[in-house]
Amino acid sequence: MAVFKLDNVEDLYEIGNVLGSGHFGQVREVQERATGTVWAGKFLKLKKGAGSRLGLERKSVEKEVEILQSLQHQNIMGLKDVFESRAEVVLIIELIKGGELFDFIAEKENLTETEAIEFMKQILDGVSYMHQKNIAHFDLKPENIMLSDKHAPNPDIKIIDFGMAHRFIQGEEYKSLGGTPQYIGPEIINYEPLSTAADMWSIGVITYILLSGLSPFQGETDEETLRNIVAMNYEFEPHYFSQTSNMAKDFIQKLLVKDQSQRMTAEECLVHPWIKPLNRTQIAKRNRSSINMKNFKKFNARRKWKMSFNMVSACNRFCRLQLLCKARGPEQQELRDCESDQEDTGTKPASLLRRRLSSSS
Ligand code: ATP
Fold first, then answer.
1. ipTM of the assembly?
2. Per DSSP, what are the bridge partners of residue 66?
3. Does the keyword Acyltransferase apply (predicted)?
C-alpha cells in the first residue's frame, strides 16, 4: 500500500500559483522550503464519507500514486512525495514548465513530418516503457502531453495525469468506461476487457489530428462521436491530407484497428518506417511532407476555447450551488457536495465517461 506522509504540506512547501485544474482539484506551483527547489503540487480532494459523491476515493488516489511510483522515465512526469490530510492528498510532482505540446506546435509557422516525428518518438518511448510494465494510461490526449521546457533546443515530452491508469495483473480482466470520447477506442465504448492497446488507439487519433487538424471521429454530439468510433467511420479527406505522406497514413491505419490484438504496439510503432525510415527515399518523403498547419491552428484554438468554456461553466455551476447551499443552511453541507458533483458529471455523456469508472475481475 502506498505510504502518504502525514506532515502538513505547507510546513515543508510554500504554495504558489495555480498551474492548472482537473476534475478533482488543482495543480499549483510549490517551493520546497528546505532546498528552494520548485515543484508542482497536485491537490486532490478526497471523498468526505461513503455517501459523498464529491472527491476521490482514497483507493483511487493510492492507485495513481502506486503507478507513478513505479514509473521512472524521461518522458513521464516524475513523482517526488505524497502528503495526506483529512480532506485531501497532495502529490508533489515534477514541475513541467513548457505547456502542452499542441500549443507549442500551434505557435509555429510550419512543421515537417520529420520534426513532428521527433515528438511522436518520445511519446512512444514513454508509452512503450509503461506498457512493458503492464501499465496503461487510458487517458492519452493532447491535454496530457506536455513539454519540459519549450525554450530548450530539443524539449522533452512529458506524459501527465495517471488518474485513470491501470496496472494489468496476469489473468485479471479489466474493464473501464473512463476516457474522453474523441480519443477512446471502440473496446471502451463496448465495455469489453481492455489491454494496453487502448492507448495505441488514442495515439492513432492524436497523430491523425496532429497531421491534419481534423479529429477523425468527431461528431456534432458526443453520442455521434461514440457511434462513429464503433462504426470505424473515418477517412483521410484529401483536402486535409494533401501534405501528408503515405507512410504517415499507413502508421495511423495500423493504429485505428478495431481488433485490439491486431493494433500496432508501441514497440512496433517505434520501428514503423514512418518513425524509423529504412532508406533514403523514405527519409526524403518525410522531409517533403508537412503537417496541415492552417487547420491544426484552427483545431487547437477550438480545443482551447472548449476547455475554457467548460472551466467557466463548471465555476458558474459551483457558484450557483454555493449560493443555494448558503440559503439552505450549514446542515446541507454534505448535500451540496453531492449536488456539485452531480452537476459536474451529469451535463453530457462525455463526462459520464470521464473518469475512474472501472471494474476488475
Ligand atoms: P483530469 O480531470 O483531467 O483527470 P486531474 O485532476 O487528474 O485532471 P491533471 O490532468 O493531472 O489533473 O492536471 C490538471 C492540469 O494541471 C493539467 O492539464 C496541466 O495544465 C496542469 N499540470 C498537471 N501536472 C503538471 C505539472 N507536473 N507541471 C505543470 N503543470 C501541470
1. 0.95
2. none
3. no
